[in-house]
Amino acid sequence: MEINASRIKAIRQQHQWTQQQLADMCGVSLRTIQRVEKEGNAASETIMSLCAVFEVPREDLLVVPKLDESEWQTIKIGNQFVMIIGAAVSGLVTGAAIMYWMLGG
């Protein structure tokens, strides 16, 4: 899972912990902390440990991907809207005709 590597390193440095100290507190290897701070990649369990040790919510450490407008999909409801209105009117007319017929109109 992608996390903010620079945020991890900054929080660790604020506490004046070495990578080894953080690894020990999280119950992971030194190599894991080095990879997290370098590549921004971590398993869910590692992220949970980091959150517990840093006392921060998970959202503070995760990278939220940003979508540019070219990745957005345009939703066109013109035709669907007309079809929905048509179906509703048809249903009302049919329902009214059935009620009229059943009540002996």
What attributes characterize this protein structure?
mainly alpha; 434 Repressor (Amino-terminal Domain); 2 domains; 5 helices; 61% helix; Lambda_DNA-bd_dom_sf; transmembrane
Short recap of the structure:
By secondary structure, the chain is mainly alpha-helical. 61% of the residues lie in helices and 0% in strands.
Corresponding CATH superfamily of the largest domain: lambda repressor-like DNA-binding domains
The residue fraction in helices comes out at 55-70%
- List the domain count as a whole number: 2
User: What's the CATH architecture of the largest domain?
Assistant: Orthogonal Bundle
Number-wise, the strands total 0
Strand content range: under 5%
Cα-atom radius of gyration: 29 Å
Q: Can you identify the CATH class of the largest domain?
A: Mainly Alpha
Average pLDDT: 89
Largest sheet data: none
Q: CA-to-CA gap between the ends? A: 67 Å
**SS summary, helix count:** 5
CATH topology of the largest domain: 434 Repressor (Amino-terminal Domain)
Give, in order, the helices and strands.
HHHHH
Structural class assignment:
mainly alpha
The unreliable regions are none
Protein model, in words:
It is a single chain. This protein is mostly helical and 105 residues long. The protein has two domains: 56 residues, Orthogonal Bundle (434 Repressor (Amino-terminal Domain)), CATH 1.10.260; 28 residues. It is 61% helix and 0% strand. It is built from five helices and no strands. α2 crosses α3. It is rod-shaped. The termini are far apart.
